[in-house]
Write a structure and sequence with these properties.
heterodimer; A: mainly alpha; ABC transporter involved in vitamin B12 uptake, BtuC; two-stranded antiparallel sheet; 15 helices; 2 strands; B: alpha/beta; Rossmann fold; 17 strands; about 15% strand
């Protein structure tokens, strides 16, 4: 047996490594990002007539604006972009940790925003402002939770495939919004921004409330997953449902409860988008961020604080590369390509941090 | 070996950080000097930098039409411009306007999509010193904002001329005996059942009717501005239903290619489709935005007020027709178009002349149109006077939404 194996040893094989210290791992990560940004610079160098430094300057401008002159509007916009994407990623994390593949953040957020929109239009003129805000918050979370609960109940009771189910729920949500916009938008197919039920602005800053809400959520999700009994149950169910059953955890209950929370947090994202940002809704309100959030949650290793860093990186690249595309009159797909390059590098780097590749020619392997 | 890699990574990282720092340091100096220069040169002629906000990018025929005009106009006027593409009809439009002003230093902002309007107005309120112009919008004339303006073009005149070309083609078919006068039925693929599209197909129909009195028309709606498959299917359905000539108001190549396949003549929109449809393309109308952009830039340069509602016409060069395709069009089409165009210019022909159409068998003498935007679409302005419907006069965006005799809507789609 051993001889046969020796004979057919592949060109290389992959070994899990455990010799890397945390700071070494982080150094590799930082180097990866720098290298990938460098690659991106080269790409834009090939496509445009700008020098590398000019390209980076444009990226910097696209994200931070003219911050040195005291103009902070772009910085706030950057933080707003981070807040929305992070909120969706945070929402997905409890479900992912339970190995429940919720691909429905898009639809859950859309339905949450839909609930906000209905409250703003139908109740905006009758309820007092604080009551209206409370109603908006509660209904948005309930609507998002409901959209998460439907696939969770089917999963718990009939073991349906949650990936497909949650994906399908996205399409249903989109079509509901399309029909609602048709009803409310009249001939123009557009719902004009509603003045009632907007989240408050603090000191004239239209994004600060969104950012604060998501900052609180970040801490909440971290504590919930790490220190609460629920969080413990989620990780046990995620590791092994049989173990969970053996130690007396009601797996069905945990699945349903966790998806309700996941959906409700998506509902919060929808509320921040509709009541906190657009004051209107259309089928593109979430704009595919519900899918980007899946990647963020994974890359953040389900740790809310690493996820803050990852959203910061992705939003930086998206805004910065978008600015390069607009300034150099490139196609807007440039931004997607850049984000793709960097994410690919990051995924590759994570792999190499956890595993090492051993090639055949090492004779030590044979002896062992 | 591993250590070497790590050191390499570290060095690389550090060098990049240094490069970043150096780069940002440099730019600070550059931008402050640029700003100083701007302030000192501010004299009689105001320096203009235009910021354009586009819904999609050059892959959409609708946006490409704006992008080409933006480039041409800014080159003609010798001014700089910046752009933001793929800006949805949401708060993102406000963000884009703020970025163009704060980061790129633009002092005129233009947005090209209907749904951008409300968000552009939010930015207009915040930056009273910057001029904001918006295509296809309806709210400038009722808003209090002095720096917010709407613009459109009397594209119904262009469609009327295209309709004349269609009518001549029908006449040719009748004379050749391939159809009888009663079989002269056209088909029209529309996006949505609202004023902009209704105004468009009605003017097209009236143009055809002016030369071919027996013409009728069927209309189908797709419910989308850009859906190649749906537009193709709608055109095919119309052809199957006995339509002998097709036109469309939607942005894809769906209808023109369906026509080319079926060998049915097509009157196009947004630009020539002759390359893909050499045997069936007759002529196309489109809006040229360059005259408006030049006007807008000149106003800011000289400190003149921009019109609250600006309507481009044939005269301003905003409404244009492509070359007539002699291979598909009836003989003498180009000359006839020139003749009718001259009459439109001197006012002897009005497109929506109430003597040329009826509704329910009766000639209209009064029609209240919904000109001022409100959420219940209340008709508020009398639009018929002096024997014709005054389209695009009380605001630039179309508001003709009368369903006249001779045109059959096979379906409706309000979006």
């Amino acid at each position: 047996m051993a001889k046969v194996k020796h004979h057919r040893e592949p060109l290389f094989h992959i070994v899990k490594r455990d010799d890397m210290v945390w700071w070494q791992a982080w150094l590799v990560r930082i180097a990866t990002i720098v290298i990938s940004v460098f690659l991106m610079g080269l790409l834009s160098k090939m496509l445009t007539e700008k020098s590398l430094l000019e390209t980076f300057e444009i990226m910097y401008r696209g994200v931070f604006g003219r911050i040195e002159t005291g103009s902070t509007v772009m910085l706030w916009k950057y933080l707003q972009e981070i807040a929305i994407l992070l909120c969706l990623a945070l929402a997905l994390t409890p479900a992912f940790k339970m190995k429940f593949w919720n691909c429905g953040a898009e639809g859950q957020a859309l339905i949450g925003g839909f609930a906000s929109m209905i409250c703003m239009i139908e109740l905006g003129k009758t309820l007092s402002y604080p009551v209206l805000l409370a109603v908006i918050a509660v209904t948005s979370m309930l609507a998002g939770a409901l959209w998460g609960l439907i696939p969770a109940v089917f999963k718990a009771l009939f073991n349906t495939n949650e990936t497909l189910f949650t994906l399908m729920m996205n399409y249903i949500a989109t079509q509901i919004i399309a029909y609602y916009v048709y009803l409310k938008g009249g001939g123009s197919n557009i719902i004009q921004p509603v003045a009632e039920g907007n989240l408050p602005t603090i000191g004239g800053n239209r994004y600060l409330v969104n950012i604060l809400v998501v900052a609180l959520l970040t801490v909440f999700v971290y504590v919930y997953l790490k220190y609460s009994k629920h969080g413990y149950e989620i990780s046990v169910v995620g590791e092994s449902q049989n173990t969970a059953r053996y130690i007396g955890i009601n797996v069905k209950k945990v699945i349903i409860r966790t998806m309700a929370i996941s959906g409700a947090l998506c509902g919060v994202a929808g509320m921040l988008l509709v009541a906190g940002t657009d004051h209107s809704i259309n089928t593109n309100t979430v704009g595919g961020q519900g899918f980007t959030a899946i990647m963020v949650s994974w890359l953040g290793q389900f740790n809310p604080f690493i996820m803050v860093f990852m959203t910061g990186l992705i939003c930086f690249l998206r805004l910065g590369a978008g600015k390069v595309a607009d300034t150099c009159m490139l196609n807007s797909a440039f931004a997607d390509i850049v984000v793709g390059i960097v994410i690919l590098c990051v995924v590759g780097c994570e792999f190499l941090i956890r595993y090492s590749i051993k090639f055949r020619h090492g004779k030590k392997e044979v002896k062992a | 070996m591993k250590k070497v890699f790590k050191v390499l990574a570290l060095v690389l990282a550090l060098s990049m950080v240094v490069a970043f720092a150096a780069c940002t340091g440099n730019t600070t100096n550059e931008t402050t000097t640029a700003a100083d220069n701007e302030e000192t040169t501010a004299g009689e002629v105001v320096e203009v930098k235009v910021g354009f906000i586009f819904l999609h990018d050059e892959q959409s025929t609708y946006d490409k039409n704006f992008m080409d005009a933006a480039k041409a106009a800014c080159e003609t006027m010798g001014v700089e411009y910046a752009q933001k593409t793929q800006i949805p009809e949401s708060n993102a439009c406000y963000d884009a306007a703020v970025e163009l002003i704060e980061v790129d230093g633009c002092n005129v902002i233009f947005a090209d999509s209907f749904g951008h309007e409300a968000f552009l107005m939010q930015a207009a309120e915040q930056y009273p010193d910057v001029e904001f112009c918006h295509a296809t919008g309806t709210q400038a004339h009722t808003s209090e904002l002095k720096n917010f303006h709407n613009a459109f073009a009397s594209i119904y005149e262009g469609r009327y001329l295209a309709g004349v070309a269609a009518g001549m083609k029908l006449n040719e078919m009748i004379e050749a005996g391939s159809i009888t006068a009663e079989e002269a039925k056209m088909g029209y693929v529309g996006a949505f059942t609202f004023a902009e599209v209704i105004s468009g197909y009605t003017s097209f129909y009236l143009g055809a009717k002016s030369v071919c009195p027996t013409v009728t028309m069927d209309v189908k709606f797709t419910g989308s501005w850009y859906d190649e498959q749906l537009e193709k299917e709608a055109a095919q359905a119309l052809i199957n239903g006995g339509c002998v000539l097709i036109s469309q108001h939607a942005d894809s190549m769906g209808a023109p290619t369906a026509c080319e396949t079926a060998g049915v003549p097509n009157v196009s929109y947004n630009g020539s489709t002759i390359a893909a449809c050499p045997n069936t393309f007759i002529v196309s109308s489109r809006i040229n935005w360059a005259p408006y952009f030049e006007y807008m830039i000149e106003c800011v340069q000289t400190g003149k007020a921009i019109d609250t509602d600006w309507t481009g016409t044939i005269e301003t060069g905003s409404v244009v027709l492509t070359e007539v395709n002699e291979a598909a069009a009836a003989e003498g089409t180009a000359a006839k178009i020139e003749e009718v165009k001259a009459k439109l210019l001197d006012g002897s022909i009005k497109v929506f002349d109430t003597a040329t159409f009826t509704k329910g068998g009766e000639t209209l003498t009064s029609y209240p149109a919904d000109v001022d935007t409100d959420d219940k679409f209340t008709p508020d302005t009398e639009a018929i006077a002096d024997g014709y419907f005054h389209e695009s006069e009380y605001r630039s965006a179309p508001y003709f939404d009368i369903q006249i005799d001779g045109i059959t809507l096979l379906d409706t789609n309000f979006g």
